[in-house]
Structure formats: structure tokens, C-alpha cells
């Protein structure tokens, strides 16, 4: 049996360092420009009005009080992270947005890192970094004290760590194969402790501690990890590779990718357990839990915790279109595929400027069209590459996209918004970068190109990247909230559904 080809060994070069620092600097500049400008008379805007005061509560009491609504409906971690900025800069726009901006920069860098791991190419990683810097959704999500950029960051970190884990296991099996160390067991060898899988579990636990939608990624990434192990055992000629995977890989995977995230999720609630004034902290004692509830069979603290979660679940389950809940910026998953319905974060109209002309300031969570309008084609191309060209590099972005998209299709009746799609776009960007990498160096040379000849594929790739930057600049008024004339605003509202 000829040995399977191991994953390429990629060494960090000076070009990686330079390209990463350049992209990180661009991400920092674009996210910190105008970071403190849009406010509502000095107060938070849009859904910041929920999370920013909750984070401020955490700087003083360690828990979110949310007295206006009586129930905090998301786990505490993201608000705790926001509170770190408020501790440093006070209850101010910089204080409640600085951590989101930093995590936004980190998200761009991690998208590059994931792409580099899949391609072993600093050039393709740079393509991904450029697209990520100039995507409107990732930009705007990084400029406000809300939750989605934190979820996105941890999800991308988890995907990157699992890719590294798969490559590490592949290398270990390959080295064992070369040394004749696969052993005599029909189940194959034990792999040893897998720190990258453990790292992925930490990231998934932190994602779950930001939003419950982190559960989707735990399920999809966990299953993918198990099937990847099965594929490797089969590839290296293990006779009973299915049983070997079930016995030697799955139990440890459950510990790292399920038990560990659950433990971290519980850890994120430590302040709730440690205080006497948190919401539903004494739900059993004060009679909030019904007398006939099965929860009363549990210890009071556990029963209170489960009752809190059942109340949150009931809140989310009740937000359905059929139940009468509607919102002017409601957006369904099918619309996300073409960024068909952005969401308005900030509006200041009827301003006078430019010699008495009517002007306005608007900020939308808005996907750069030249990126988002290629979402469906690039996903179809990714499937083609996986199924027919056997290019496994496209599997991680496909799995990452599916984890953030398919569950929302199942819950289609729920009230949804475009910011739910924020964790999807990093994986689309990775797939786009992989596709651009396939173009580079292919096609006939264009001889008239000055200063040097270049293949048509290379020209197409760089023209696309230039178009991404140009379109970002064109739509920047509704990403940063510049004051622009009414006519200018109308000229960039290409689709009626954008208004």
C-alpha cells in the first residue's frame, strides 16, 4: 500500500508576518475610524441599549440587572467582555465599543489564519484578509457594543483550531505509518492528547457563552471532527475504522467538543450563582416556580438556574411571525443569501447642509454587494470542488456556513435579523479566497499589460479585489454614517428592500 500524502508542512515566513500586520492595521483603522461618533444624544443606539447597560451593571455588580425588561435573554460572556472596555474608558461610546472593535480586528486576522492553514499560501490568506476588511457586515458588527462579533470571532477560532487538529492527526498517523507504528490492533492506534481539538472546544464553549446559537457550531463541528477521524483511519488502512473511531476518537471528542463547552458555559454564569440578587436566583423560594413543576425535585439553586433557562427559551420560542411578532427590519435566511434586507442601526434625517440642501446620516448593517452577491455561486463552486474535484480545502468553509445557516431554515417562522448572518460571512470569504487562489496563474497571458505580463486569471483575481475595495468606499456613507445629501443617499439605495 502506497502511503497517503500528508498535509503540507507550512512554515511561517517573513511575508506572512508582513501581510498579516498590513491587513491587521487596515482592519484596525477601518474599525476605529468614527467609532465613537454615532450616538443617541450621547447614549447607545439600536440594540446597544440592551447590552451596554447590562455590561455597565457587570462592572459594578458582576451581573446584568436589565431592570427595564426583567429578564436577560442571552448568556453573560459578551457583555462581560464589553464591560472590560467600560472599566477602562467609562460609560462612554469608546468604553462600550472598544472591545467589539478589537475583536473585529481579531476576526479578520483569524479569517486569514484559517485560509492560510487550508491553502499553505500567504497570498491566498491575504486575499481573504482584504475581503474581510472591506465587508460591510463584519465592519459594522465590529463598531457597536452588541454580541455578534464576539460570536463570530470564537466560531472562526474554533474552525481554525479544528483544521489544525485534523492536520496534526494526519501528520501523526502518517509518521506512524512510515515507522510501522500503526500497531496490530484492528481499531488502529491511539492518537494521543489533541491540544488543537481542546482549543476548539474552548472556543466553542466561549461562543455558546455569547449566544445559544453556538450550539449549532458545536453540533456541526463535532460531527465533522468525528467523520474526519474516520476518514483518516480508513485512509491509513485500519481494518475496523468505524469501530476504531467510535472507541478511540469519539469519547475524547465528546469531552473536548461537548463537555468542555458546557463546563465553560456554566463558568460564564459564575456571577449569577455567586449573587443573591440575580434574576430568578430565588425562583423556587419566592413561588415563581409552579408548585407542580418537576424542577422542584431538584436542589433550589439548580432548579432556579433551569427555570431561568426555560424562561429564556420560552421568550425566544415566542418570537414568531405566526405569533404576531413583526419588525420592519425582519430578515429571513433566504434574504441573507443576497444581503437582500440589511438592518438600520442609526438614522438622523432632515439635516441641513451644503448650502441648504437636505441631508441625512444613516448606518446600516449592510453587506458589500460584490461579496454577498457571489455567495450562492461560490457555495455551488465549493460543492463542485469537493464532490467532483476532490478538493477537501473547501469542506471547512462549507461546514461553517451550513452550521450558521441550516438551523435558521428549520426555525424559519422565528423573527430574525440580518445580524444573525454575521458568523456566516467569514466562511464565504474563505471560500472566495480559495476560488481566487485557483484563478491566479491560470489562463493566457495578457501581453499588453504594463509593467509586466500576467495570466488572465491573475488579472481577474486582482480586479475583483480592487472592486471589493472600490465598492466598500462607494457604500461607506451608510457604513460610517457620513452626512450626505438626500440625492446621494437615494443613488446608493439600489434596491427598494434596502430602505
From TrEMBL:
Domain ArnT-like N-terminal: 95-173, 194-266
Keyword presence, Signal: no
Domain of life (superkingdom): Bacteria
Pfam families: PMT, PMT_4TMC
GO cellular component: endomembrane system; plasma membrane
Domain Protein O-mannosyl-transferase C-terminal four TM: 303-498
UniProt keyword terms in alphabetical order: Cell membrane, Glycosyltransferase, Membrane, Transferase, Transmembrane, Transmembrane helix
EC number(s) on file: 2.4.1.-
Pathway: Protein modification; protein glycosylation
Entry keyword annotation includes Transmembrane helix: yes
Cellular localization per UniProt: Cell membrane; Endomembrane system
TM region positions: 18-37, 94-114, 120-140, 147-163, 252-269, 370-387, 394-411, 417-440, 461-484
GO MF annotation terms: dolichyl-phosphate-mannose-protein mannosyltransferase activity
Membrane topology summary: Multi-pass membrane protein
InterPro entries reported for this sequence: ArnT-like_N, PMT-like, PMT_4TMC
Stated family: Belongs to the glycosyltransferase 39 family.
Matches recorded under PANTHER family: DOLICHYL-PHOSPHATE-MANNOSE--PROTEIN MANNOSYLTRANSFERASE, PROTEIN O-MANNOSYL-TRANSFERASE 2
Task of the protein: Protein O-mannosyltransferase that catalyzes the transfer of a single mannose residue from a polyprenol phospho-mannosyl lipidic donor to the hydroxyl group of selected serine and threonine residues in acceptor proteins.
Protein name per Swiss-Prot or TrEMBL: Polyprenol-phosphate-mannose--protein mannosyltransferase
Organismal lineage: Bacteria, Bacillati, Actinomycetota, Actinomycetes, Mycobacteriales
